[in-house]
Amino acid sequence: MRLTADVIGEAATFINTVKDRELDLRGLNIPAIENLGATKDLNDTLDLTDNDIRQITNFPYLPRLKHLFLSNNRISRIDAQAAKYLPNLLTLMLTNNQINELGDLESLSAFKNLQYLSLLDNPVTKKKHYRLWTISKLPKLRVFDFRKVKAAERKEALELFGQEGKETTLAKELNDTKSKTFEPTVEEPKSNLPTMGLTPQEQQRIRDSIKQAKSLDEITMLEKMLQSGQIPEAQKQRLGL
């Protein structure tokens, strides 16, 4: 089932046990992240557990989102650009996915505020240095795989891998061990909004701009263009049309 604006609108939203507003999108066989601009950044927690998602990518700007649950999917790739759109993410649950190599975890370092992370039951957990390597990427990490991160672990990780800009030889070698299974030709998800009156080029330019939008107001304006099929003259130059 595609993650359309209608699916998002019909999904259960509630105040959870820690008093956060949560959107429940569990167990819908969703194949890709798309159309999350329809949430209008109203949620603290997004639950996408038990779906068929392959990549962490294609998020709109969601500064309110703090907790993201993606366990029991098929994720093998984490787009480093996703962190730019989720600047306040504290929790990322990725238990039972398909992350294979230590180099595939490099993009986690872009999540500067991440405090809670689970990668249990991913193939990468069997790699040597797995725990210390991941700790070295996330300076604010407090709990990793449901175990508290200790000061001694941080010290050992620093000795093994160095720090940003001063990486050790081992760190550089591990960073090059990225998975070969990712296929970059996967078709990008598209908005489900109607597009009558727009050329294919105009539709694509607007969709690209939605992905790069920095605020909810900008996303809303661009989605209205798609829905109405009209682009104001003042916006055409901005979109390169």
Q: Just give the CATH class of the largest domain.
A: Alpha Beta
Supply the number of structural domains.
2
Radius of gyration: 19 Å
Strand line-up in the sheet with most strands? 1-2-3-5-7-8-9-10
Class by SSE composition: alpha/beta
Q: What spatial form do the alpha-carbon principal axes imply?
A: globular
Uncertain parts: 181-196
CATH domain topology of the largest domain? Leucine-rich repeat, LRR (right-handed beta-alpha superhelix)
SSE pattern: HEEEEEEHEEHEEHEEHHHH
Distance between the termini: 33 Å
Residue share in helix: 25-40%
**Could you tell me the strand content as a percent range?**
5-15%
Please give the number of β-strands.
12
What integer is the average pLDDT?
86
| Total DSSP helices | 8
- The assigned CATH architecture of the largest domain is Alpha-Beta Horseshoe
Biggest sheet details = 8 strands, mixed
CATH superfamily of the largest domain: Ribonuclease Inhibitor
Describe the structure in your own words.
- This protein is α/β, with parallel strands linked by helices and 241 residues long.
- It has two domains: 5-176, Alpha-Beta Horseshoe (Leucine-rich repeat, LRR (right-handed beta-alpha superhelix)), CATH 3.80.10.10; 197-228, no CATH class.
- It is 27% helix and 13% strand.
- The protein is built from eight helices and twelve strands.
- The strands form three sheets. It has an eight-stranded mixed beta sheet.
- Residues 181-196 have low confidence and may be disordered.
- Pfam families: LRR_9.
- Belongs to the U2 small nuclear ribonucleoprotein A family.
- Keywords: Leucine-rich repeat, Nucleus, Repeat.
- InterPro entries: Leu-rich_rpt, Leu-rich_rpt_typical-subtyp, LRR_dom_sf, RU2A.
- One of its GO terms (molecular function) is U2 snRNA binding.
